[in-house]
Amino acid sequence: MAAKRKAAPKRKAAPKRKAAKRKAAPKRKAAPKRREKQLKERLQLKKQLQREKPQKERQLQREKPQKERQLQREKQLQREKQLNEKPLQREKQLQREKQLNEKPLQREKQLQREAKRKTAAKKAAPKRKAAKRKAAPKRKAAPKRKAAPKRKAAPKRKAAKRRR
């Protein structure tokens, strides 16, 4: 007898659930159309981008050598300006360049040495940071806050979640 009485509320709730399902159903049917529309739009965008991409690339290819030449010209001018200001330094620089141009092997070694130094400096950086961290004065941890009591989700929200 008691078992039957407990089962009764479930039967009462069922029609409500069915009605809610029925209400939500048309929305679900509309989704595929929206999805198709989105897919079409995405495809159009993709095609448009593909059309524009080669044009942009061609333009970049055209601009690249110009930019490089411009940069080299600027560098050269800057170098000459700097060296004209200091004649002694200019002499030394010219001598060094001449020497390196005469001995490509020496130039290669010089470049390798510089690269090695740079990589070594890069590798040492994390160690330096770690040492700094170790040396820093230790801060006390903040006192732990008591967690706020958890609120139960409202039954309506639960139902909405279940529907999703």
Quick structural summary:
InterPro entries: H1/H5. The protein is mainly α.
Molecular structure report:
The chain has 4 helices and no strands. The chain is mainly α. It has a domain at 33-124. The longest helix is centred in the N-terminal third of the chain and has 84 residues, at 2-85. The radius of gyration is 37 Å and the shape is elongated. The two termini are 36 Å apart.
Task: From the alpha carbons, calculate the radius of gyration and give it in angstroms.
Answer: 37 Å
Report the order of strands and helices: HHHH
The CA-CA distance between the termini, in Å, is 36 Å
Fraction of residues in H or I helices:
over 70%
Low-pLDDT stretches are none
The coarse silhouette is elongated
Proportion of beta-strand residues: under 5%
Class of secondary structure makeup: mainly alpha
Major sheet description: none
Number of strands: 0
Number of helices: 4
Overall mean pLDDT score? 79
Set out the fold topology:
Elements: H1 2-85, H2 87-102, H3 104-135, H4 155-163
Helix pairs in contact: 1-2
Biased composition (Basic and acidic residues): 38-114
Region (Disordered): 1-164
Biased composition (Basic residues): 1-37, 115-164
Characteristic terms for this protein:
164 residues, mainly alpha, elongated, H1/H5, glycosyltransferase activity, DNA binding, structural constituent of chromatin
